[in-house]
Specification:
The protein is of the alpha/beta class. The chain has one domain: Uracil-DNA glycosylase-like domain (Uracil-DNA Glycosylase, subunit E). Helix content is about 45%, strand content about 15%. It contains nine helices and six strands, in the order ααββααβαβαββααα. It has helices spanning about 5-10, 15-40, 70-75, 85-95, 115-135, 145-150, 185, 190-200, 200-210, and strands at about 55, 65, 105, 140, 170, 175-180. Strands 1-3-2-4-6-5 form a six-stranded mixed beta sheet, sandwiched between helices. A hairpin with a 2-residue loop joins β5 (about 170) and β6 (about 175-180). α2 packs antiparallel against α5 (about 115-135). The longest helix is centred in the first third of the chain and has 24 residues, at about 15-40. The chain is globular, with a radius of gyration of 20 Å. The termini are far apart.
Length: about 210
């Protein structure tokens, strides 16, 4: 046998960045599908005849938008941010120059017709699992109720958020948070819509400051 010992040892090749990204996406998709299966089959609460709503968007989204509860079209389709709110948010991010493929949207409460206390108690665990799978760089906290749920269910490494719409805050060492007014109710009032847009457009500034990778 010839050659130095370090030359004789064969090491597995280091995955290329694209291969690694692909593997991470496959894992995130599998974990998201399993989570969605458990959400759909959850019977922890007394719920309506409609199926729960599941999150929508990229499995490794950099930006996760969180509303409090699904509206009618979301419930009827079983998909978060389906309908009027989703269309409004999409137009907003396009106006800010943000790639829509970097987005993921979800609701704290997954089922329509649930009372807040029941939904917060049972659904918060699902929300935290979503964030663990996605590992976002930014969460957009849409409304005081979402803020209260996140603060009440903090996990190790996360910080308490304050009600300061339009101000970037640190949620964890790897994730920032942007608090905005509730997007669903903001669409029905011109002044409320202006307040939401004022806070939400800070997301564009954050996005432009991100490194190009």
């Amino acid at each position: 046998m010839t050659g130095r010992p370090d030359e004789q040892r064969k090491q597995a090749p280091t995955p290329a960045p694209a291969d690694l990204r692909s593997r991470l996406e496959e894992q995130a998709i599998a974990e998201s599908n399993e989570l969605n299966r458990r959400v759909v089959h959850c019977r922890s609460c007394r719920r309506s005849e409609y199926l729960p709503t599941v999150g929508s968007g990229h499995p490794l989204a950099d930006i996760v938008m969180i509303k409090y509860r699904p509206r009618y079209l979301e419930v009827s389709e079983g998909v978060s941010f389906f309908g009027r709110t989703g269309s409004a948010v999409l137009k907003s991010v396009e106006r800010l120059g943000i790639d829509p493929l970097l987005l993921y949207g979800t609701n704290v409460i997954k089922c329509g017709g649930l009372e807040g206390v029941d939904g917060e108690r049972e659904c918060a665990t699902f929300l935290l699992e979503e964030l663990h799978i996605l590992q976002p760089k930014m969460i957009v906290v849409m409304g005081r109720q979402v803020l209260d749920v996140l603060n009440a269910h903090r996990v190790t490494g996360t910080r308490e958020l304050s009600w300061e719409p339009g101000k970037l805050q640190e949620y964890s060492p790897f994730c920032q948070a942007l608090v905005t007014p509730d997007v669903d109710t903001s669409l029905d009032d011109a002044d409320a819509k202006a307040e939401f847009w004022k806070a939400f457009r800070v997301l564009g500034d954050w996005y432009r400051d991100q490194p190009p990778y």
